[in-house]
Amino acid sequence: MSKPDYVYVTYIETTADKLWHALTSSEFTERFWFGYRASSDWKVGSPYHLAKDGRRAVQGVVLIADPPNRLAYSWDVVKEGVEREGVSRVTFDIEPHGGVVKLIVTHDNLGPKTLRDISGGWPMVIASLKSFLETGHELPADLLTSSAREAYHA
Question: pTM for this one?
Answer without folding.
Answer: 0.90
